[in-house]
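Session log. Operator J.P. requested a structure for one protein chain; no other inputs attached. Running the standard single-chain path with token output.
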Amino acid sequence: MLQRMRELAVQSANASNNSDDRKALQAEVTQLRDEIDRVAKTTSFNGTKLLDGTFANATFQVGANAGEGIAIESIVSAKSDTLGETPVHMTAQINNAADPVAPAVLAAMDAGDLQVDDASGTAIDLGPIGEATTGAQRSQQIVDAINAKSSDTGVFAFATLDATGAVTGYRVWAERALTAAGDFTGFGAATTGTVTDTAAVANAAMDDVSIESYGESQLALKVIDSAIDAINSSRADLGALQSRFENAVANINITGENLSAARGRIVDADFAKETSNLSRSQILQQAGTAMVAQANQNGQNVLSLLR
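Structure written below.
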């Protein structure tokens, strides 16, 4: 399911999709996320939940004596509110610039007017931006410009919408902390909306995944990759524990065989020795019989002489 969600996020990040396409893709992502939650909350063994994060500090006795156990610290929680939890830095909503009074427009911005720093502190030009008739249109222009340079800056943006689907502003996020004064050049309340410093977001997890825009798809990819890594790591840990259990079982079987062999040495007959004793007894018996027969024959010989 996570792999399918990742495929959908990659597909949504493609500019060939319009908003309706992305909403359709998001519908499948939502259903897959709900199914992951259902599996996490209902998977159990003998009444014990295994994937909801509550299975921890369990010890399995593998020997006959005290202290002979194998402990499992925990199994990763697959619930969407914690799975794939990834630390990112995100601004609060940057509200639209004020709409101009017609026939006025928000003026076009030349190359070099807007810049965003990359991780090394180098300013990256966002390029020219055309004029806009509304603040919402300008916000979408800013989002597109930031995302167009995201491979250089490591900074992403996505538009924020109200209940009716209208653009109310945008948010910017990155894997590092960003400051309005240090990382953004040329941004202002009247032209782009007031940019704020980013704040660390600790709960960017599967329940936050949205792929309804390019910027959100990029965040979704990061979260889903983190979730896949967490699942793979947990599977590796459980595989290693399974190997330990198999070795413990093999060791117990060997111990049982050794104990059975030792008991056999004490209780069971030594077949080779007893066969040798039987042969010895038979030889002695046959020899005794032969001697008796010979003695009887000697008596008969004496009687025959007396006749």
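Operator note: The radius of gyration is 41 Å.
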